[in-house]
Write a structure and sequence with these properties.
By secondary structure, the protein is mainly α.
Length: 197
């Protein structure tokens, strides 16, 4: 493919000829290296200012074409997310017709879903179980999660049984009240530690 006006044709990359030093440098290498160092230091000292945050950039993809979705600001005040496939590039035109999505609205929806999952660990366990049954590669720690949850639940039941045993022993005079209170306090601390793990 080429330009019909000029008659120039695009050559295959394999046919390109590299001519080293065909264009002489406009500044010497020492000055170029010093300028690059100053630019690097300026960038480290003053990182670029980002005036808008797009929390989902890099975490979501377009539901229509699968392209990444990025943040975009319209009129310098309205935050939106848009599919990268909707914008033409140097090598192709737009590949998607997805509409802009209001950033606040989309982030609120995602946050509500994340909050719901965090408040219900069974959702996470169900997903891990589904992945395990589907044969998805999972780290060994995650694969053993169900076993660990079951072990912790058994330990919590054991605390209840131990408290009942202490009350029984107190009732029949086998131990003193102070000993029972000390032991119950110890069991409470152990139970809280187990729940936290």
């Amino acid at each position: 493919m080429g330009s019909p006006k000029t008659g120039l044709k695009v050559q295959k990359k394999e046919d390109w000829k590299i001519l080293p030093d065909a264009t002489p440098p406009s500044i010497d290498k020492g000055l170029f290296d010093r300028v690059q160092e100053v630019l690097r230091q300026n960038k480290e000292q003053r990182p670029p200012q980002i005036d808008r945050e797009y929390l989902l950039t890099g975490h979501i993809a377009c539901g229509s074409c699968g392209s990444p979705v990025t943040g975009s600001c319209l009129s310098r005040k309205h935050r939106y997310y848009r599919c990268r496939g909707t914008a033409p590039t140097a090598s192709r035109g737009p590949v998607c017709k997805a509409k802009y999505m209001r950033a606040d609205h989309l982030e609120d929806i995602v946050w509500q879903k994340v909050s719901a999952v965090l408040q219900d660990p069974q959702v996470i366990l169900a997903e891990l179980q589904r992945q395990s049954e589907a044969g998805t590669d999972m780290p060994q720690d995650v694969a053993n999660l169900d076993r660990e949850v079951s072990r912790l639940q058994r330990r919590l039941k054991e605390y209840v049984n131990q408290e009942k045993r202490l009350v029984y022993e107190l009732r029949y005079g086998e131990i003193t009240k102070d000993l029972v209170l000390d032991e119950i306090n110890r069991l409470k601390k152990d139970r809280e530690a187990t729940r936290a793990s």
